[in-house]
Design goal:
Helix content is about 30%, strand content about 20%. With about 425 residues, it is of the alpha/beta class. Strand 19 and strand 20 form a beta hairpin. Helix 3 crosses helix 4, helix 3 runs parallel beside helix 6 and helix 6 crosses helix 7. The longest helix has 26 residues. The radius of gyration is 22 Å and the shape is globular. Its cofactor is Mg(2+).
């Protein structure tokens, strides 16, 4: 049976959570393979809204196993809070429903403090991080000084790791806080050990060898759904660097971040809005800084699920889509929030850029060049009809069908899923990726 990766094809916030929730019905295992609680996946089921930051979106389906892979950085307090909230609503009834890789790295309070004060020190050149400590945690991981989930389960080892890291952290914080004119926040090793050992005990029933578990699931023919966070253009290697996140968001990292080989992956579905959004700084060629951009933000409820920050909105960028197809090896696209475009008389769709008088059809590698490009648009007719009641492709207005088909032509891959509303049921699934 095929195993499927779901990744964002833009700058994140594409609606991956809804698509993962929808596809979980056809999978046995759902794996989150990168990022941290800087990502928020919003699900609406039966009119009830759920926002998940660490636990895979498939947790709302009974009898499924959700896995937090080694590629994720985990804030234990956030994770425990998320687990408690789900249990209070009748989910996560058994420990076996959630497996946390013992090799996942842990976010500590100092990571969040460093994140916040470094951003303050950058001033006008701030990246626009969420302040959740994601970047500093990955930094410690790569520097081979990180603390992993397995360490939380051994108090003596945990204290040793904290004692090794804390002096250097306090040294940097003193310098940063001095520049900010603020006192250094207190960080006590004994208190940190006690707090995080306690959190570790709450997580203990769920901690294990995720790689070994997933390999056994592959061997028995289980259907596995890999869930990415953020989006292609936020990938630390392949995004609009330095305005990116601190992990690899592309499909290739699904194997690395879960402990499986690349041959375990059969299909890759990219998620794209019917328009484009991004949060934070960085180039955005098709951004609309006018009343239409504000309309997209208002109608699409474009505010961050994690931070509440308003998202920058613009027309769909076909150049970005083609790039996402290439670096992820996309086999299909899910087009979300098509309903938000209802009522716009004329739609624009970017299919190329103009850079220094030359027309280009591929994404420039230098983000400064991307900041100078002018989008080359083609115009398509809009539609007035509301789409929330649509359940088949044939029910779409002709102009909406034409828009979808043009997205397929520009991207080079088929659109196999269309979202026409926030609820799980407001979706047109044209082709199930779990069926060969």
């Amino acid at each position: 049976m095929p195993n499927v990766v779901v990744v964002g094809a833009q700058w994140g916030d594409e609606g991956k959570g809804k698509v993962v929730d929808l596809l979980t019905e056809h999978a046995q295992v759902v794996v989150r393979f990168q990022g941290g609680n800087n990502a928020g996946h919003t699900l609406v089921v039966g009119g009830q809204k759920t926002v998940l930051h660490l636990i895979p979106s498939g947790i709302l389906h009974p009898g499924k196993t959700c896995v937090i892979g080694n590629g994720v950085v985990v804030d234990p307090a956030v994770l425990v809070g998320e687990m408690d909230a789900l249990k209070a609503r009748g989910f996560l009834k058994e420990a076996s429903h959630l497996l946390i890789s013992d090799n996942a790295h842990v976010i500590f309070p100092w990571h969040k403090l460093l994140d916040t004060y470094r951003e303050k020190a950058r001033g006008g050149s701030a990246i626009g991080t969420t302040g959740r400590g994601i970047g500093p945690a990955y930094e410690d991981k790569v520097a081979r000084r990180g603390i992993r989930v397995r360490d939380l389960l051994q108090p003596e080892r945990l204290r040793k790791r904290i004692d090794e890291r804390l002096p250097l952290v306090l040294e940097e914080l003193r310098e940063l806080c001095q520049k900010a004119g603020e006192p250094v926040p207190p960080l006590d090793a004994a208190q940190l050990q006690e707090e995080f050992s306690s959190l570790g005990e709450k997580l203990r029933p769920h901690v294990g060898d995720a790689s070994l578990f997933l390999a056994s699931q592959v061997a028995r023919g289980a259907r596995i759904l890999f869930e990415g966070a953020q989006g292609t253009l936020l990938d630390v290697d392949h995004g609009t660097y330095p305005y990116v996140t601190s992990s690899n968001c592309v499909a290739g990292n699904a194997a690395v971040g879960s402990g499986l080989g690349p041959t375990a992956i059969d299909k890759v579905m990219g998620i794209s809005k019917a328009y484009t959004t991004r949060v934070g700084g960085g180039p955005f060629p098709t951004e609309l800084s006018d009343t239409l951009g504000e309309q997209l933000r208002r109608v699409g409820d474009e505010f961050g699920a994690t931070t509440g920050r308003p998202r920058r909105c613009g027309w769909l960028d076909g150049v970005v889509l083609r790039y996402a197809v290439r670096v992820n090896g996309l086999s299909s696209l899910a087009l979300t929030k098509l309903d938000v475009l209802s009522g716009i008389k004329t739609l624009q769709l970017c299919n190329a850029y103009e850079l220094d008088g030359q027309r280009i059809s591929e994404l420039p590698g230098d983000y400064e060049d991307l900041g100078r490009v002018k989008p080359v648009y083609e115009t398509l007719p809009g539609w007035e009809e509301k789409l929330t009641g649509v359940r088949t492709f044939d029910e779409l207005p002709e102009s909406a069908k034409r828009y979808v088909r043009r997205v397929e032509e520009i991207s080079g891959v088929p659109v196999t899923c269309i979202s026409v509303g926030a609820d799980r049921g407001e979706t047109v699934l044209l082709q199930n990726p779990f069926r060969s």
